[in-house]
Amino acid sequence: MAVSIWQRKRDLVYLIFFLTHIPIMFCVDLTPLYPVALKPAFMTDLRKWYITTYRDQFFSSPPAWFDTYIWLEALYHVPLSFWAVPALLRDDPKVPLHLLVFALEAGLTTLTCITDYLSWSGYSNNEKIELGKLYVPYLALAVFMGLDMFQRLSQGISRSSKTTKGDKSEELVDHDRTRVRPPRGRLIFHCGCVRRLAQKTCFTSNRLSSSDAIKKTSFLTALFSCFGSNKAPAPAPKISGPRCFRHESTGDHAIPLRAFVSTPPPYVQPQRP
């Protein structure tokens, strides 16, 4: 729900400005654009009083570029002012954008007029000060409005960017949670196969040459590193064979049985007495 206009002090000031700006435009500023037959008499009298009181050359003998400002006021200020009044009341989110553009345009045109009338000859300082009482507050309000609207837009963009970053981080977390991973049982099965292969290779390394054993050990080290372990395969456990067996060549009973060997060593069973 929108905050009440009475609680938004700056918007209340802008609302009062536009409520007074609309009748001033129609009764004073835009009267040169009206047809003479349709121009009310009180508008002509009001304009004459203003010229007599302030000696404003922009209304008595305006320069060529001032007509452009009059048309700009008719084509831009009038529709914007009628839009701004209800927009400020309902706290429209587009208010900062439109009023920032209005403040820049109004401030630039007013500054041009101030710079020009300060160069008029034949005017005393008091007369220029009286003109300044009309133009300088208008310029000050335009500058204040522009800074205020710029700050509002900056804060809105900052909040929007933070919200966007938060949404992206949540999407990344959700994507990481839903990422497909290999089944745990399959991974354990592969690790078990690799470890059995390592044990078999270590058990049979005594039957290989030293260069072949080094190659197999390096291969297994690289293979284990793929599964998160850089440790070399464990040495072969010493499995002692039954004492009732002897080796055929040496007759040594201490030679252990070799596990995972496809071709068993030439063990023979001793003859019974």
TrEMBL record:
The entry's keywords: Membrane, Transmembrane, Transmembrane helix
Signal peptide residues on this chain, from the entry's feature table: none
Membrane topology classification: Multi-pass membrane protein
Pfam (any one): EBP
Residue intervals of the EXPERA domain: 10-146
Transmembrane spans: 12-34
UniProt-annotated location(s): Membrane
GO CC terms, sorted: endoplasmic reticulum; membrane
Protein's name according to its UniProt entry: EXPERA domain-containing protein
